[in-house]
Design brief:
554 residues, 26 strands
């Protein structure tokens, strides 16, 4: 047992084989640190679910060991679950200035106070139990993104966070490749690297290449320009505002997250906007159309986002006009392609001109492509490698890239959520799994919607509901009233009177049979009604609605 205690255990609780929900746990003896704590958006079959957060029950059981949460950057897939987790775990948080600024707005929304937030500058090293964590500047689609060099009792780990190598970034702060090389020369036990773009050859274009595209769009259009982009892409928003200012346009923002992020970025000095450029969206009618730019959320086709509501003519302040130009400055996150396509179709059907990624260079990725991943791997020279942040095919491709650079296949670990890696000073091997999975957030409910509830929702959405209501005598168990048949989402009652009457007769027959057999137990009655009616309906019209018998007693 003592020997096991001297092992470092690495546990990914999210972000493996999926986009989003990124969280990794490092544990040595009585010390635990967390790297990121993100959320993901629900899949199509998660009906009614708002967001998905990682199952961190392992952390609740080991809460006394947790020394802190360190953050790589301020995107939702890395910080979105923090308010939910902090309601049960009071732990210190460490991150760069903008990252913590964005988290603070979340805490205000969730009414969380007295949270221990600690701003860390690039180059600083913090001590958390037996771990030393150094923050290294990288480049990404949000300012203040960091890689982490984590010194542990058994060796050093480098976690790249989400990154790309941009030699001409908007803010002039270039990724600190020199530090990666220095650490590589000192010796790195494990590299954990972003795999999102591992399938893309070459290198990711610089964010600054988008500037010329926006310049051409704004100069060549004499109506309103509506630009949809990620609210967290501060550099992109800055470029849209710069192009607007150069062309004498006022800028209005739409979408709560857009307003929150821009407000934080301006307050902390990450955006430069001329006085008078920003106007309230309610005032856009006071200016000619060719002097208006609207920056909005909804680049992923989210159902309640500003752009989706605009495309459906449901936005309170913005109604599309013939000369409007809509620019979607983002690429669909895997899984969102259909919803984005639907929004584009809706906009075009309304006569609006739409510019999107496949027809103009109005978006560049924030993630490293194959050549950049090779460069980091070569500089760091790790003994072991673990691809992170991506679906299985991304992780597999990234593993192949490492192998092509000469890394031994036995030293490459493609992990799954809940899997563990155990390290000593001279070995690495897989350990036993820990609990992991999804916690579904629906409204204010956290984890109260599980697989059974989702199954019922799916059932209701596909086949509808039949409610059978009847009243029984308390004295002798005879049927006094009913059965009444109520249908929702099954058939339109007024046009299916014969079928409803048939259903009523089937139920009557079941009740008569139960009466003859002297069956008065409610659960048996309900079960007989449900089973017989289900078989009848499936045989009759090949449908399988949810059947809900309700028995009242007088």
């Amino acid at each position: 047992m003592a020997k096991r205690k001297n092992k470092l255990t690495l546990i990914p609780l999210g972000g493996m084989g999926e986009i989003g929900k990124n969280i990794n746990v490092l544990e040595y003896k009585n010390d635990i640190i967390l790297v990121d704590c993100g959320m993901s958006f629900p899949e199509d079959e998660m009906l009614g679910i708002d967001i998905v957060i990682p199952d961190v029950s392992y952390l609740f059981k080991n809460r006394n060991k947790i020394r802190g949460l360190v953050l790589t950057h301020g995107h939702e897939d890395h910080i979105g679950a923090i308010p939910y987790v902090l309601k049960k775990l009071n732990i210190p948080i460490y991150g760069t200035k903008l990252t913590l600024g964005l988290i603070e707005t979340k805490f205000r929304e969730h009414r969380l106070s007295n949270v221990d937030l600690n701003v860390v500058n690039f180059g600083d090293t913090i001590k958390l139990g037996c771990f030393d964590v150094e923050f290294i500047r990288t480049g990404h689609s949000i300012p203040d993104a960091a890689a982490l060099a984590i010194t542990t009792p058994v060796g050093r780990i480098i976690h790249t966070g989400d990154f790309k190598i941009d030699y001409t970034p908007i803010n002039g702060d270039v990724i600190d490749l020199n530090r990666f090389a220095e650490l590589g020369n000192e010796g790195v036990m494990l590299l954990m690297a972003d795999s999102t773009n591992a399938e893309r050859p070459g290198s990711t274009m610089s964010e600054s290449t988008v500037r010329n595209t926006f310049k051409d769009i704004f100069e060549g259009h004499d109506g309103r320009v509506l630009v949809a982009t990620f609210a967290s892409n501060v550099h992109r928003i800055q470029q849209i505002i710069d192009a607007s200012e150069e062309n004498g346009r006022k800028v209005a923002l739409s979408g709560r997250s857009m307003l929150n992020t821009t407000g934080v970025a301006m307050e902390l000095g990450y955006m430069n906007i001329e006085k008078g450029t920003l106007i309230d969206i309610k005032d856009i009618h006071k200016y000619p159309n060719d002097e208006i730019t609207l920056i909005t959320t909804g680049s992923q086709g989210e159902p309640m986002s500003a752009l989706t509501r605009i495309s459906n003519s449901e936005h309170r302040q913005i109604q599309l006009e013939p000369k409007d130009l809509v620019v979607i400055s983002a690429s669909p996150i895997p899984g969102n392609e259909k919803t984005v396509s639907k929004v584009i179709d809706n906009l075009i059907q309304r006569g609006t001109e739409v510019i999107y990624e496949s027809i103009a260079d109005i978006h560049v990725s924030g993630h490293a492509c194959e050549e950049e991943l090779k460069l980091i791997q070569t500089l760091v020279k790790p003994k072991y490698f673990m691809p992170v942040h991506g679906e299985y095919r991304h992780l597999k491709k990234h593993a192949e890239i490492a192998k092509s650079l000469g890394m031994d296949e036995e030293n490459i670990f493609i992990m799954e959520n809940g899997g563990t890696l155990e390290f000593t000073k001279d070995s690495a091997k897989r350990g036993s799994n820990v609990p992991s999975g999804n916690i579904l957030v629906d409204g204010l409910g956290i984890g109260d919607v599980g697989n059974i509830v989702l199954r019922d929702r799916k059932h209701l959405s596909e086949d509808g509901l039949i409610v059978v209501v009847l009243t029984m005598s308390k004295k002798d168990g005879k049927i006094i009233a009913g059965p009444d048949i109520i249908s929702r989402g099954f058939v339109y009652v007024r046009e299916s009177e014969n079928l409803i009457e048939e259903v009523r007769n089937v139920v009557k027959k079941v009740l008569e049979d139960c009466e003859k057999k002297n069956i008065t137990d409610w659960s048996t009655l309900k079960s007989n009604v449900r089973d017989t009616l289900r078989n009848h309906l499936y045989g009759k019209i090949k449908r399988n609605p949810m059947i809900l018998p309700i028995i009242m007693e007088v």
